[in-house]
């Protein structure tokens, strides 16, 4: 007689995060250990997030994964690392209603199916891997009843994608690079929760939703191998910026926050340009957005808006409050009038501004 089959499922959602002090460059490619600390803001999960459902069943012959409805190979190593680390920590699970009893050693033999959706463009430089891998680790942990704290989970998510370790927490988050060779102290800590500085409004101007040409992983590898500027950035510039940024966040000092954020975005892109062959993530529209913000901030005498760009041309704009955000939207729409059928190219961090 065949055994009765069952499926156990868990679903989770994780937002993406935007770095204000950037991670760029690894000292260990396999463990994903960075060359410097970084600091980010985690977005509100209603807007840019990944939703993942994981299922385990004795009827699954292998581990499989679908991203936005399309099956992807799990053999890449990174998903496997996360899966392996969570499996190691799996505990007994009992679901009386369904009559399911799983012993912790059973998890070694049970295969999983993973389905993940992003509610925003994948791999367009909007940190889709951060949301996706954080969500995967979190949801697998839920399914397998793991009991680790968030620091430990962030360290596992880091092995899926560096920036993912920061999406385990909401609010303002620091990824401490750590000193150990085994990565045991390279994990995220929360600097302040989401309510700490809720005047800030984040607006994401999607300049292009096309997939980027140079992946972050290969781009930062080339930078580590060829950019003399990266050493200076990682050893001399970032450590003092991290301290200043922590203070700015603690004191809700928008002026310092904005100056540091813009300067660090610009240095990250300078390091990309210093790579051989050079990497161009921003385009003319990105440069025009920078000029618009710089001129405005200069004319006000004190910064109103901070900009930051990741591995793509899209602008992340952080306004000091809702009033400034409304003015910013007006200026953006005036300078870049939406084309017909193009209104969705303005994805807002705070939708209510439009209504
Ligand atoms: C960041 N970025 O701090 C920086 C700024 C892009 C620019 O983290 O190889 O996708 O998976 O560790 O995390 C993008 O890098 O790269 C990134 P991997 P990841 O957000």
TrEMBL record:
Record EC number: 4.1.1.33
EC top class, as a word: lyase
Keywords per UniProt: ATP-binding, Coiled coil, Lipid biosynthesis, Lipid metabolism, Lyase, Nucleotide-binding, Steroid biosynthesis, Steroid metabolism, Sterol biosynthesis, Sterol metabolism
Catalytic activity: (R)-5-diphosphomevalonate + ATP = isopentenyl diphosphate + ADP + phosphate + CO2
Diphosphomevalonate decarboxylase-like N-terminal domain mapped to chain residues: 15-188
Portion of the full sequence shown: 3 to 357 of 420
GO biological process: isopentenyl diphosphate biosynthetic process, mevalonate pathway; sterol biosynthetic process
Organism from which the protein derives: Triticum aestivum (Wheat)
Function of the protein: Performs the first committed step in the biosynthesis of isoprene-containing compounds such as sterols and terpenoids.
Protein name, entry field: Diphosphomevalonate decarboxylase
Domain Mvd1 C-terminal as annotated: residue spans: 202-355
Family: Belongs to the diphosphomevalonate decarboxylase family.
